[in-house]
């Protein structure tokens, strides 16, 4: 019997993602071999201790939060190419919204994969072009006039996205929104670890949505 | 071997990694596109997804490029280029480099010359993000099985659950704009930018629905994002 499309996506996705693991690990390995410069284990360990507890937790939580939205192919790709919260997830969500398909359906799977793949290719090409043209670009991109534009890219992105999603489901949105606004007003320094708050927001809105669903409010 | 953070050898490594990422993306793009056609999806809709995703990506991609520029000041181009093209983000890589430098007792104010410091940073960056890549093939199937179970039991709740997850994510980023407002008027800039982006999206929504400008859907997100970024430059100039 022929494998289903989804089964075969898993098959190819695994091949690609395990190859990506090898490629990613080979980078520091070849650098060490070529320069014959293996770092002290203790230095790497100490460096890792400073970041790994948070990254590893966020990394696993991101997988749990984003894979249901992104679908099979989209997840295998997005977790290699990265920039999930600020680019791939909003991109896939907007594409599915515009195409009027649901995440989790086969059409949703296809639209999400196409959106993430296109976005990955464009990102990689723009960074590559940027690297080639770096000496011309730095004065422009580093100029104080443009700085506020890129400092504010997240609010600029999420403002538009919020209109689409919050207006449609404002009842579910109230609780997590009030919580997030309150927590950032009380502890502004949390802005640097917004990644940890994404699952917190998701849990709050799921719990509240469940209660409202049971009481037939939504 | 003379070490330099910008040596041709490291550039070659970077190019190999970048080609791998592009190959994987092209593979999934073609596969999904073919499958879409095979199950009878509208070709125009598939093409529209490609165009709108590409346009939508430009501004965030330039902001990622800015991350490469920031890191290149002490790490050279190749390593930040690799890290930002594969799963990395400036919010991961900068703390990883800083944490390692602190552990080694060096400063990141100038370009690294010691290859051992360089490789130590490369290892910390790589091992720090590894669970995201390794975790996906391990966790994806069980997670999907769980979602499918919920869907079969109660499909209305499963849709709500997905929506609630999006909203939780969006809320975290919406709440973030309130982080600086106690610092004075300049701290309100992110909030103003967010509201302006929402306003533009609202206008696009009205034009799409009331004036039947369906084509605008493809560009609405990009228009509100880039429009709000331009607004950020103007309002920052006025407030400061």
Which SSEs are present, and which pair or pack?
The complex is a heterodimer of chains A (218) and B (240).
Chain A: H1 5-35, H2 41-81, H3 84-98, H4 106-132, H5 134-141, H6 147-151, H7 153-168, H8 170-186, H9 194-214
Helix pairs in contact in A: 1-2, 2-3, 2-4, 2-9, 3-4, 7-8, 8-9
Chain B: H1 8-38, H2 43-75, H3 78-85, H4 90-104, H5 115-153, H6 155-176, H7 189-210, H8 217-239
Helix pairs in contact in B: 1-3, 2-3, 2-8, 4-5, 5-6, 7-8
Largest sheet of chain A: none
Terminal CA distance of chain B reads 50 Å
Choose one word for the global shape of chain B. globular
End-to-end span of chain A in angstroms?
A: 43 Å
Beta strand % of chain A: under 5%
The number of helical runs of chain A is 9
Largest interface, C-beta within 8 A: A-B, 155 and 152 residues
Summing up helix and strand content along with how strands pair, one would put the structural category of chain B as mainly alpha
Order of helices and strands of chain A: HHHHHHHHH
Task: Provide a brief overview of the structure.
By secondary structure, chain A is mainly alpha-helical. Helices cover 83% and strands 0% of the residues of chain A. Chain A contains nine helices and no strands.
What does this 3D model show about the protein?
The complex is a heterodimer of chains A (218) and B (240). Chain A is mainly alpha-helical and 218 residues long. Helix content of chain A is 83%, strand content 0%. Chain B is an all-alpha fold and 240 residues long. The longest helix of chain B has 39 residues, at 115-153. Chain B is globular. Chains A and B meet through helix 1, helix 2, helix 3, helix 4 and helix 5 of A and helix 1, helix 2, helix 3, helix 4 and helix 5 of B.
